[in-house]
Design brief:
Strand order of the largest sheet: 6-7-8-3-9-10
Order of helices and strands: EEEHEEHEHHHEHEHEEHH
Distance between the termini: 24 Å
CATH topology of the largest domain: Rossmann fold
CATH class of the largest domain: Alpha Beta
CATH superfamily of the largest domain: P-loop containing nucleotide triphosphate hydrolases
Number of helices: 9
Largest sheet: 6 strands, mixed
Structural class: alpha/beta
Length: about 250
C-alpha cells in the first residue's frame, strides 16, 4: 500500500498544556483507521492540524508526497482532503440539493480545468449517501442521522483522497451508526481513499477499522490492528478499562 499521509514530529501547546507531543503517524491509501483515546487526549487537535485549521508549532504534515504543513484549509481541500465535524456543518437554510450544489461549485472553482469524476455530481452524491428522497428538504428539517449523511456527502464533494471523520456517528442510533461507518469503509475501498475517524463506540471501532491508533495525553501509546490493540496493557489502562473489548465484526 502507498503512504498517503505522514505526520512527523507534530507538537502543539496551548498555554502551559502540551496537547500534542511529537506525534508521528502514517495512513495508507485504501485504509480505514480509527483514532481513539480519552477526552482531552488531543484527537481534535490532531484532526485540526491535519486539516489545516491549526498549523503545527513544530513538525510536518505530508500529504500525497507534498509538504502541506503551512497550506490553508482550502488548498488542502483542493488537493483532496475532506472532513466532517463533531457538530454538523451544513447550510441549514438551504435544501439538501442546494447544499451539495454549493459544495460542488466551490470545488469546481478550485479546479476549473479538471475533468471531474462522474461520481462528483449532486445526483450521484445523493444516491451514494441515501439522501435522494430528501433532496428537496430543507437541511434544518432533517433528522439528525440524515444531517450526518449530508455532512458526509459535503465532504465527498471534493473527491477526497483522504476523509477525516470526526465522530461521524455521534448522536445517532446503533443501526445508523453502522450504516455511516460502513459507507465510509466502502468508499475507501472503492476509490482507494484513506479514512481517519474518531469514535467513542468501541463496538464500531473494532468492527470497522483496519488499524487503530490510540492517543493519550498528546502521545500515541498504541498503533496496530484491532486484535493487537484490544489486548495492549497500556490501552486497557488508559482507555478501554479492565477488560479487553469484544469484537463483533458485521
Amino acid at each position: 500500500m502507498s503512504v498517503l499521509l505522514k505526520v512527523m514530529g507534530v507538537k502543539m501547546t496551548f498555554g502551559g498544556v502540551q496537547a500534542l507531543k511529537s506525534v508521528d503517524l502514517e495512513l495508507n491509501a485504501g485504509e480505514i483507521v480509527a483514532l481513539i483515546g480519552p477526552n482531552g487526549a488531543g484527537k481534535s487537535t490532531l484532526f485540526n492540524v491535519i486539516n489545516g485549521q491549526l498549523f503545527a508549532q513544530s513538525g510536518k504534515v505530508i500529504f500525497n508526497g507534498r509538504d502541506i504543513t503551512r497550506l490553508s484549509i482550502e488548498k488542502r481541500a483542493a488537493l483532496g482532503m475532506g472532513r466532517t465535524f463533531q457538530v454538523v456543518q451544513v447550510f441549514s437554510s438551504m435544501t439538501v440539493q442546494e447544499n451539495l450544489e454549493v459544495a460542488l461549485y466551490a470545488y469546481r472553482r478550485l479546479h476549473p480545468a479538471k475533468q471531474l469524476n462522474p461520481h462528483a455530481s449532486v445526483s450521484s452524491l445523493l444516491e451514494l449517501t441515501g439522501l435522494k428522497t430528501l433532496a428537496d428538504c430543507s437541511a434544518q428539517t432533517l433528522a439528525y442521522a440524515d444531517m450526518k449523511r449530508l455532512d458526509f456527502a459535503l465532504a465527498l464533494a471534493c473527491e477526497p483522497k483522504l476523509l477525516l471523520l470526526d465522530e461521524p456517528a455521534a448522536g445517532v442510533g446503533e443501526e445508523q451508526r453502522h450504516t455511516l461507518i460502513k459507507m465510509a469503509r466502502e468508499i475507501a475501498c472503492k476509490h482507494h481513499a484513506a479514512v481517519l475517524f474518531t469514535e467513542h463506540s468501541m463496538d464500531t471501532v473494532f468492527s470497522y477499522a483496519d488499524r487503530i491508533i490510540v492517543l493519550d495525553r498528546g502521545k500515541i501509546i498504541a498503533n496496530g490492528p484491532p486484535k493487537e490493540v484490544q489486548y495492549d496493557p497500556l490501552v486497557i489502562r488508559a482507555y478501554l478499562g479492565s477488560e479487553p473489548v469484544t469484537m463483533s465484526i458485521p
